[in-house]
Protein: Alanine dehydrogenase
Organism: Streptomyces jeddahensis
Amino acid sequence: MTTSRPNVLESAMPQQTTTTPPQITVPPFAVIPGAQVQQTLQGQEQQIVNLVEATYRLHAAGDSVNPPSYFLRFPDRPTARIIALPASIGGQVRVDGMKWISSFPANVTAGVPRASAVLILNDHDTGYPFACLESSIISASRTAAMAASAADRLTRHRGRPTRIGFFGTGLIARYIHTFLSATGWSFEQTGVHDVSADSAAGFRTYLQQTPTGRITVHDSPEQLIRASDLVVFATVAGRPHVTDPAWFDHNPLVLYVSLRDLAPEIVLASANIVDDVDHCLKADTSPHLAEQLTGNRDFLTGTLHDVMTGRVELPEDRPVVFSPFGLGVLDLAVGKHVYDEVTRAGQLHVVDDFFHETRRYG
Ligand SMILES: NC(=O)c1ccc[n+]([C@@H]2O[C@H](COP(=O)([O-])OP(=O)(O)OC[C@H]3O[C@@H](n4cnc5c(N)ncnc54)[C@H](O)[C@@H]3O)[C@@H](O)[C@H]2O)c1
């Protein structure tokens, strides 16, 4: 009688399984123009603020990858730059991608917006790009949404400001005003200051078409700041031009989206909230200059997420400066939301055969 003993080699080998390989297909590639982006986002300001806050929560929980932005600069065009913001986000959004955003300030004198951008969304499973979206509107919307979120979160225990001042009055200032208005803010006084009289006049005309209280155009930056308990910085300054901490003696909230206007001494005299510490302390932002001056990060109070979760409290006897570097994960979240809405509406423009070599051996 022979007993059948297992072949040593066989028993050492992994058991053959009959599972079929996962079904992987190349997703269709779509292009979403600015008109569709704007149509989708208009009227959704509160929803976008909620989405931005949910994205901060995912980022704080570690469910994101958000490496440093890459700044492409040009020796022959020193004021211009193009920034790459690659990122990946988990949660229900679950998408990878990159924002590629140009800043050419000289465009403005020709009546063309300074910033232009595209956002690429990549499929989680195959890595294939599946959408290219016009992204200057997405970028402006997520920036305004994070400003509106900060205005709300950072004033809950300090009293709501009633006098707002816009320092720099381009497209971002307009979007921030729109988002604040759409999320329940109204102001008794609105101050405006810009080095360009044309910009200040254009912004004033825009404001007059909205339900705004008294509007004052300030020639002096000092007057604008002293007259405002909420100051929005949205200039294109490359280095500090506001240097006197005494202008902030009334302890305003500063929404500091342009990041390079304030001397480090003003940062050091304030409570400082950022969106992400490592991102914000780079690229010669004012908090970065403050770190270089002091050799430490002790002047940072915390992140906006820390405030949202009650981990930090804000003093009432100092200015509060919110410096958001602007995370690529926010662009991804808002971009994916636009993609989903356009898809749901059955209005996605797919580019047939965009990826053509889809069989490995032809
Ligand atoms: N932190 C972020 O996530 C984020 C996102 C988007 C944009 N931004 C920044 O917002 C800023 C504004 O963008 P935009 O698209 O509105 O630009 P824009 O060119 O449309 O407007 C900028 C305005 O600032 C004015 N200005 C320039 N220097 C000034 C100064 N020293 N004092 C007063 N006014 C001055 C200009 O005349 C112009 O009217 C940029 O610095 C941009 O990088 C930040």
User: Anything to note?
Assistant: The mean pLDDT is 93.
